[in-house]
Each structure stands twice: as structure tokens, then as C-alpha cells.
Amino acid sequence: MRLPSLLRRTPFRLTLLFLALFATAASAILAYVYIASAAEARAQAEASVQAEADILLAIYNARDIDALNMALIERISRSGPYVYVLTDASGAFISRNLDASPIDPAPDTRAGQWGTFRLTETDEAGRVERPQGLGVDYELSGGEHLFVGQSLGDTEAYLMRLTQALWAAMGMVLVLGASGGLLISRNVERSMARLNKVVMAVQDGDLKARAEVRKSGDELDELGQGLNQMLDRLEASMTSIRHAGDAIAHDLRSPLTRMRAKLEVALIDAEAGKVSGTDALGVALDEADHLLKTFNAVLAIARLQAAQGTPDPVRFDAADLASDMAELYEPAAEDKGLEFGAEIEAGLMIEANRPFLAQALANVIDNAIKYTPVGGAVMFRARRRSSGEVEYSVTDTGPGVPEADRERVVERFVRLDNSRTEVGSGLGLSLVVAVLEAHGGRVQLDEGPGVYDGFGPGLRVALVLPPAPAGV
Questions:
Q1: Contact (Cβ atoms closer than 8 angstroms) between residue 57 and residue 72
Q2: Rounded-to-integer distance, Cα 142 and Cα 150, Å
């Protein structure tokens, strides 16, 4: 038989576990209290009986058996807490308030023989009781035997009341603990049910589902907030994937169509003998290379976004990378008829993935050279900001990017109207942004030097990176 859901919850099982541990500890404490109280009561009763016996022995030793008998008669008449039995050497009773001595004296009990026994008493309601008693038997010098004892009925009644009170208290704790466990389990079950409802909704494809946060600051709220943040990122990732898939399909449709058309024309020309098969294959290879570049850029962006941080970082001087990039692109700028300049500070230590950062710089410099008309200029700088951050910047005198389009131009597959005539996929700046975000940096787009002599207003692209930690 399957237990109800409430009873199978972890908080309720933990409550039962703690209750079991408490019950075990309480039982041990109860046993200790009972044993200690019984031992203390016995010790007090034994001391009281011993004191009474010492008094009677002193009377006997000071005078004789008659004086002892008179003392016992006087005590019995007062109905005190003690019981007495005095017998002569032959075992005949001299005085007593018991039917017989409850202890069978052993030979030579001058030092006293202790023992326990049961008394028969009648309480105020007329009920017969048999409490336990404690007593000692002494053999006197004349052969007589003196027994002195005391009832432990009051002590037993006290221990009984104490035991009942402790059991009642433990029962109340167990009941309250079980009730509290049920209440806590019920509340936890409701909270977990809300979270499970969200999880089930997400499994069914509803990425808009979110957990309710009660703002109580407890663990369930932290779990709900973490779940919501995870779902936010998941929804953003899925949206990005859908957008990327749609954009790839849209952006690749044209080159694929163009490739097919060129291949078809090349096939017709080859069949007609107008071109060779080698030329037709060259056309196909050029178009395939363009498609591969697009896919590689998409894969690089996906890898950076999935890394959640800098992939394989190394410590190096950003100035060295800047010098290499300037040396690499200066001839390309001069071949196009552009003026290329570089201003590079030394000692710009950073921690980064050098190949990814080099690719980002290559994209920015290549864009600047591509979109700057002949006769223009491109300036490449590497410096340390007053904030301590390291900045790469590329400034050109090309047509620039309108301020309203600067946020949009860094998105995937976005190409402005003035760039449609150039070869490209619209992924260059998207990759740059992904690289900088993975390194904890940022990309800033600003206007260039402005319109001058028919050039401009230009564009300034800054790649800002955090400096390497000190002392590393």
C-alpha cells in the first residue's frame, strides 16, 4: 500500500527521525532519573533506619533489654514511620508492630544484616497496598534480635508520579512534533508542487512559465529565483537559436541560389565548349568557401557563448598582438590606397584567448579597410585607459554607422544598406561582441573624425578589456 504523498516527503521523514532520536534520548533520561531518584531515596531511607537503629542500640548498651523494650513500646505507640521487631534469644517476640521479622537473620549479625521486604498497608480510601520496605537486623549481646525498618511507599509514589509526568511530557512532545512535521511537510509539498508545475510546463514546451517567488528569503525562494534565471537564459538561448536558424536559412538562401545558378550556367557553358570544367569547379569552390566562412563564424560565436567565460586564457602583452595586427594589415590598406597608422603603448598585460582576440581585431580592421573609400585613412591604437582597462580602437574615415543603427549592427546577420554591395555575411561584429563578452569586456561604437574633404563621418570601434590581475 502506497503512503500518501505528504507522508513520503523528506521534511516529514526527517521530523520522524528527530522524534525517534528524541524519544530514545528522553527514555534514557527517564531511566537515569528513575534510577538516580530510587538510589537517592534508598540511601536516605537507609540512613534514616541506621540512625534509628543506632539510637536503640545505644539505649540497649547503656542500660539493658528492658530499657530497649520500653523505648520500642513508646515508639510503636506514637505510630511513627518505622517498624520494629524485638525477639529474645529463643526467637520469642518481646515487642513489635509487625507480625514477624521480614528478614531471616543469619548467624552472627552483630554488624547488622540489611534487606528489603514488602509491607501490607491500608490507605485512607481503604485500599490495601504493598509498598516496599528497607530494614536492618542486629543480633544483640544477650542473643536477642532487633529489627528496624521503614516503608518506601512515599518514595515509590513520588517516583510513580515523576514517571507519569515524564511520559506525559514526552507524549506531548511526540504529538506536537508529529503535528509540526505534518504542517511543515504540507507547506513544503505545496511549494515544491508549484516548482514541479513550472518544470512540467517547461517540459511541455512552455518556456514562458516561471516559478512564484514569495520574497521570504528562504531556500525555496532561492531555488525559485535560480530556476527563473535558468529559464530566462534558456528562453533567450532558444530564441537566439531560432533566430540564428532563421537568419542562416535566409542569409544562405541567396548564396546557395547564386551557387546553383552559376553552376548551372557553368554546366551549360562547359557543355557548349565555352568554358572548361576547371573554371566551373573554381566558381563552385569560391561559393563553398564563402558558405564555410559563414558557418565557421556561427560556430565560433556559439562556442564563446557556451563557454560562459574566457576559453583557455593566457597572460600576454596586448601591445605585442597589436603590433602583429598592424604589421599584417598595413600592406592591405596601402594596396587599396588607404593611409594606415598605428599608435601602440607598451606594457598592456591582459589575460585572454589570443586566437579569438586576434580574430576579433581582424574583423574590425578588415571592416574598416573594406568600407573606407580610396584615399581615406585607418588609425589603429592600443592604449591603457585612466580606469586601468586596456583598449584597442580602430578609427576610419568611411561612411560610418548612423547612431540609430549602432545597437542593431552588432546583431547576427544584420547588414546595413550601404554594405549590401560588399561581400560578407553580417557576422563580423557579432563575433567581436561575443569575444569581448566572453572576456568580460565590451564593444563601443562611436562616430569617427567627422566629414572632411568628402570623407566621413567615419566610425570608431573600441574593444575594451579588463587588465590582467595584479601579482599573477
A1: no
A2: 25
Which helix (H) or strand (E) segment holds residue 293: the answer is helix 277-307
Domain locations along the chain: 5-157, 219-306, 309-465
Q: Which CATH number fits domain 309-465: 2.70.98.70, 3.30.750.24, 3.90.550.10, 3.30.565.10?
A: 3.30.565.10
Amino acid making up residue 422: E
Decide: helix, strand or coil at residue 181.
helix
DSSP summary character for residue 452: B
Q: pLDDT digit string (tens) for 280-296?
A: 677 677 767 766 766 66
Among the four given CATH numbers 1.10.150.240, 1.20.1250.20, 1.10.287.130, 1.10.10.410, the one describing domain 219-306: 1.10.287.130
3-class DSSP assignment, residue 351: strand
User: Phi/psi at 144 (nearest 5 deg)?
Assistant: -70, 165
Do 309-465 and 5-157 fall under one CATH topology? Answer: no
Distance CA 149, CA 116 (A): 9
pLDDT tens figures, 235-288 = 777 776 666 566 566 556 666 776 677 777 777 877 777 767 677 677 677 767
- pTM > 0.70: no
What's the burial of 174, exposed, middle or buried (CB within 10 Å: 0-12/13-18/19+)? Answer: middle
CATH of domain 5-157: 3.30.450
